[in-house]
Write a sequence for this structure.
């Protein structure tokens, strides 16, 4: 198998599992406590905090679902922290749990090559297709939401920047990616205020 290459020509193998590991704490500053908290692309659940009445963690990856069940299984039937792990298409998950009391954190794949080269990950379409489908339904949702992306939106053709939604960029405290800070673009239907 040929090595995957980044846009800079270097081998693109970050190791580990893609996700919001380095900026999760900064993203959490903008997530309100809610009655229903949903991650339609939960991955390894690095962002979720057990401060919501009901938590839905969804992912299509068998690896991620098994990890989430091991990590949060003890809370699934807890009265204090009811966590449910699901494995369904992101659109089905979003539409099923959409209410005025729902908050969605939506973090689709940013770079196809990161998922394509990682056998534990799941990516069945291009990042641009994920974001395009999301932007079609976001205006119809009753709940509030944040969509995450790479700051440069390289594989999604700046589709989020072209919207009229609220935007901000969060940055890791340490330089963690090729000597640089990890940066995540956040786009939301509501203004960014720290919780």
């Amino acid at each position: 198998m040929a090595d995957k290459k980044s846009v800079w020509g270097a081998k693109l193998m970050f190791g580990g599992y893609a996700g919001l590991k380095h900026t999760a704490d900064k993203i959490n500053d903008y997530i309100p406590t809610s009655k229903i908290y949903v991650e339609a692309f939960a991955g390894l659940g690095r962002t979720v905090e057990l401060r919501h009445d009901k938590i839905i963690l969804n992912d299509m990856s068998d690896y991620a679902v098994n990890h989430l069940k091991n990590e949060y299984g003890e809370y699934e039937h807890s009265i204090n922290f009811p966590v449910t792990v699901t494995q369904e298409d992101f659109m089905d998950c979003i539409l099923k749990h959409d209410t005025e009391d729902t908050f969605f954190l939506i973090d689709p794949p940013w770079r196809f090559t990161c998922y394509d080269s990682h056998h534990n990950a799941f990516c069945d379409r291009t990042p641009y297709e994920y974001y395009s489908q999301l932007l079609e339904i976001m205006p119809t949702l009753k709940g509030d939401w944040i969509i995450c992306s790479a700051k440069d939106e390289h594989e999604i053709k700046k589709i989020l920047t072209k919207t009229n939604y609220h935007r901000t960029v969060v940055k890791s405290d340490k330089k963690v990616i090729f000597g640089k800070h990890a940066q995540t673009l956040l786009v939301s239907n509501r203004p960014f205020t720290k919780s």
User: Anything to note?
Assistant: Strands lie at 36-39, 54-58, 83-86, 102-106, 144-150, 166-177, 180-188.
